[in-house]
Write a structure and sequence with these properties.
By secondary structure, the chain is mostly helical. The chain has one domain (27-102). The protein is 95% helix and 0% strand. It is built from 2 helices and no strands. The protein has helices spanning 3-63, 66-102. Helix 1 runs antiparallel to helix 2 (66-102). The chain is rod-shaped and about 90 Å long. The two termini are 33 Å apart.
Length: 103
């Protein structure tokens, strides 16, 4: 290879590395925003949702008939399943964020 070709190849590689670095910084900023949103918005809302369910259960236990309780328990199981799915999604997002930070 001639010296000019080597210099051109090095210049091209340097530009590619800079482009990848710029993209990585953009991904890191996005991941940071997602992480802050998850910690500051999503998780507190999930906790409030859980606390609300606990409060409802306690109130219903105090005031409901057995038949009503069976219906409520069924609803609670359904909501518990939904919360489990939401927690799984949150866990997946956390794992994705961690993986992106490592990249």
């Amino acid at each position: 290879m001639k010296e000019d070709q080597i210099l051109q190849a090095l210049t091209t590689l340097t530009e590619m590395v800079q482009d990848v670095s710029t993209r990585m910084q953009s991904v890191e900023r996005t991941v940071d925003k997602l992480s802050v949103n998850q910690e500051g918005v999503i998780m507190p809302r999930l906790e409030l949702l859980y606390e609300g369910h606990v409060t409802l259960i306690r109130q219903l236990q105090d005031h409901a008939s057995e038949e009503d309780m069976l219906d409520v328990k069924s609803d609670i199981r359904m909501h518990a399943d939904e919360i489990k799915r939401i927690n799984q999604v949150v866990k997946t997002v956390q794992d994705d964020i961690t993986e992106l930070k490592r990249a």
